[in-house]
Every structure is written in structure tokens, then in C-alpha cells.
Amino acid sequence: xxxxxxxxxxxxxxxxxxxxxxxxxxxxxxxxxxxxxxxxxxxxxxxxxxxxxxxxxxxxxxxxxxxxxxxxxxxxxxxxxxxxxxxxxxxxxxxxxxxxxxxxxxxxxxxxxxxxxxxxxxxxxxxxxxxxxxxxxxxxxxxxxxxxxxxxxxxxxxxxxxxxxxxxxxxxxxxxxxxxxxxxxxxxxxxxxxxxxxxxxxxxxxxxxxxxxxxxxxxxxxxxxxxxxxxxxxxxxxxxxxxxxxxxxxxxxxxxxxxxxxxxxxxxxxxxxxxxxxxxxxxxxxxxxxxxxxxxxxxxxxxxxxxxxxxxxxxxxxxxxxxxxxxxxxxxxxxxxxxxxxxxxxxx
Length: 348
Ligand code: UDP
Ligand code: MG
Prior knowledge:
Blueprint: E1 28-35, H1 42-52, E2 58-65, H2 72-82, E3 86-91, H3 97-107, E4 112-115, H4 126-135, E5 140-147, H5 153-170, E6 182-185, H6 186-193, H7 202-208, E7 213-219, H8 232-246, H9 249-279, H10 286-319, E8 326-330, H11 343-346
The protein binds uridine-5'-diphosphate (UDP) and magnesium ion.
Uridine-5'-diphosphate is lined by residues 34-36, 38, 66, 94, 96-97, 100, 117-119, 121, 228-230.
């Protein structure tokens, strides 16, 4: 491995490209990329990005190594050594995609910030289209995946289902095919950085903050190397965080379920009394008694589960722990001497 950056196959670069901080002749574009176990992907990604933003007066690439077990951080350092426009943050362990993104947003200095995956599924050529919409006045430019090659059908199905349920429960409109590939204006980034909540779900927050937005469709490509980090467990966790941080409808669902089952129970009780006193018979049946009991217990446990879920979220919030820890950084500091990451602002 380590070959991706090492040795002779590397493309020729100028001795060390200069970092552009506060460019005199135009806005700075930041590209933020969370990376977990993406060794081997970063160099081709950098090359493609460099080509696709070649016309811009100034850009920076911020790669956030989310506690990767492989050589990801070494590649980030090597990229920074070649091109000072590449900056890197290393989180102290794996905090998860959403937090890595957030850490990157905190470090970005551009007037426009593009977030994308490290695996080249999000084609860097689309950046130009995002910028075009931004110049027309959109503060948020979403991308919409139109072609889902290389995405397995269980994933397509579960993501379509999740977005339906999420939109219904939260009233925040999300479409399937919207990933964390988008452009954010500086103003939106500043607003997002004020969010102190745990269980971050950027896809929802970005919709929630408002601002004029546009959508750009793109063709999703195959993952370059390694495999997706979103197994079923991670997907469920993200879905859970997304729903509980945006909606209390599941809690209200409890009231509804409770009403329906109590009505049912009242009816049964009423029927039993009626039959006993007016017909002189007694309704036979341990079976029905058990049936009702099991049903009620089932409903109760579901409700307790939902309550527990929200209670857990409250616990996470009130503890107020930092949401991620930056262990290391490479790249320029901002001229006035601030470190590249405002850990207080981005974390907590
Ligand atoms: N990622 C991360 N931390 C994690 C999991 C993923 O920073 O714990 C990064 C990953 O390297 C990639 C992006 O988040 O750049 C999206 O992950 P992936 O491609 O595995 O998700 P998918 O495209 O399958 O939804
Ligand atoms: Mg991906």
C-alpha cells in the first residue's frame, strides 16, 4: 500500500503549490472531505479535484481523517507536503461521518464550502455546476443522485423508505438521492456551526436552516476503492439520530396507540359485563384475556422504548461532552495567529 502517494508513479507537481489565504482576486473555495479508511482514494481524488477547480483564483482542500485504521493520515500529510492548499485534521478516534464533516466545516475558511465523499462517488466535475448556482445567488446547492449504479438494492430501498418516513415525521423535505455532497455559502456554514446538538444530522439541519437553495443532479459513480462504511448498523443509527433530532411525533404516536388499545379494551370489558348481566352467560376465555394482555404489554414496551430513545438523547445533550476531538492538524494557520481549527466553535 503506501504506494498511492509514494514513489515514482506520482504526477508531476510544482515544487510546492502555495496556500491561498484571503486571496486578493476572488473568493476562496473550501472543499471538505471526511475520510475513514480511504487510503488509496485520496491521491486520485486530489488529482481530479485539482483539475476541476483549476480555473478558480483560490481553493483549499480539507481532509478530515476520522480515526482511520489505515494509512489515510500519512496520505493527507504527504498531500500537504506537496501542495499547501491541502490541509488536514485528524480526529482522535472514529467519531463518525457527520462529526468529521462538522469538524471540516469548522476548519474551512472559504466563502463557499463544498462537502463531498472521499471515494470519488461524488464526481469533482460537478463542483463547477455547484459554483455556477452559487454565483446565481443560492446559499445552499444540493446535489441529487440520479443514477445509482453500484448501489445495492437493499440500500436503495432502505434509503428511499427512510427519506419518506423522515420527511413525513419531521416536516423537513428530504429526497432520496440527497447525500452529503453540497455547496454551502459562508453564511450558512456560520449558522450551522452554532448548532450544539448531539446526534448531528446535517442533511436535515441544512434543510432546516432555510435560505434560497438549488439542486444539481449528478451521476453517482462506483466507489473507487474499499467498501462503503455504512453497514446496516451505521445506517440505522443515522436514521435514528435523524428522526429523533427532528421529530417528536414518535412520542405522540404513543398517545394514539394507547387510545386505540384502551378503546379496544373498554369494548371488551363492556361486552363481557353486558353478556354476564343481560344474558346470564359468562364469556369463556383465557385466550382472549391473554390476547389483550399481550397486546397491551407489546404496546407498552414499544412506548417505553420510544421514551427511552428520547431520554437517551436528552442525556447525551445535557452531558455536553465535546462531540469530537481534534488530535492533529496539518496546514496553514490563519495569518492572525489563530489555529486552523476553532475547536471551541466546531466542537463544544
Ligand atoms: N466516513 C467517515 N467516518 C465514518 C464513516 C465514513 O468520515 O465513520 C466518510 C467516508 O470515508 C466517506 C464518507 O464519509 O468519505 C461517506 O462514507 P461512505 O462512502 O462509506 O458512505 P456511502 O457513500 O456508502 O453512503
Ligand atoms: Mg460513498
